[in-house]
Amino acid sequence: MTSLTAVPAYAAPAPKAPLERTTIERRPVGEHDILIDIKFSGICHSDIHQAREGWGDAIFPMVPGHEIAGVVAEVGAGVTRYAVGDRVGVGCFVDSCRHCEYCEQGLEQYCVEGMVATYNGRDKNGDPTYGGYSTHLVVDEGYAVRIPDGLALDVAAPLLCAGITTYSPLRHWNAGPGKRVAVVGLGGLGHMAVKLAHAMGAEVTVLSQSLRKKDDGLRLGADRYYATADESTFTELRGQFDLIVSTVSAPLPIDAYLGLLKVDGAFVNVGAPEEPNSVNMFSLIQGRKTLAGSAIGGIPQTQEMLDFCAEHGIGAEIELIRADEINDAYERVVGSDVRYRFVIDTATI
């Protein structure tokens, strides 16, 4: 095993404080661990929610980042899945109980005992976890996935959250030929939902506040694009969709969106607003509709998603930044000024 290693990282020292360069300790490489030389780390809106305690109390100092792409630099003696030089990714969790009914099904994100978050969590020893805004990460081999050679690491990094977060509900609710899918919001999550639903063969409609990104939406694979600020949209599209995937992290008029579903249609939330939402039960009863949520995906499905993306030539649309641009990038994400995912070049940390 290696000795505990100090590695550079960017951390929020306190809630709402600007991120700053620091040094963190990574655990030694254990028997079943791999050491990842992180090459790229995506910036997810979740990072901002947590660094600013928008979702509740958090652990500081915090090193965000759960869209991690890199190369294996060292393996433990018992590692069988990976070798030095392999291209790998790590998403939103780095461990789970491994024995509950959901872990045994490859649904580790729903672990009964709670998955161990990649950052802003605590490992089984009670130590805080630190994420991908750093140069290296040690993780159990069972919680890393292989990035296919057909995917560049920079555009693959956001797939570890934005990609799987949208792929999982599209698969679960059977998006494909003959299905009409609407994507609410064309941001970091939404642009991936459009690409994936299109590749699955569904008819895809984007529902965005304005038509500002219409050309992008159509280029990414949308068949139609409507502005939700135009009230006529909710009249024109009433009863049309089998599945609506909402990727926005702000409260929505849920009843209006439920009105766009066919009988037995589903409205699935993958965006997580900081404020509660409300719904009129008659919006569900009249049409046997489903209001649901979905959280990322397990390790097997994340690997399936990466292989699907490689097969179809799908990567995230990214803006590559230096580490010293993270704080500016946070403000731009909050202002919806990114097309469509910031990715940190960790060599600049």
Automatic annotation (TrEMBL):
Record has Methyltransferase as a keyword: no
UniProt keyword terms in alphabetical order: Metal-binding, Oxidoreductase, Zinc
UniProt similarity note: Belongs to the zinc-containing alcohol dehydrogenase family.
Domain of life the protein comes from: Bacteria
EC number(s) on file: 1.1.1.2
Record protein name field: alcohol dehydrogenase (NADP(+))
Cofactor(s) the protein requires to work: Zn(2+)
Record InterPro entries: ADH-like_C, ADH-like_N, ADH_Zn_CS, CAD-like, ER, GroES-like_sf, NAD(P)-bd_dom_sf
Domain Enoyl reductase (ER) per the UniProt entry, residue ranges: 17-344
Catalytic reaction list: a primary alcohol + NADP(+) = an aldehyde + NADPH + H(+)
Entry GO MF terms: alcohol dehydrogenase (NADP+) activity; zinc ion binding
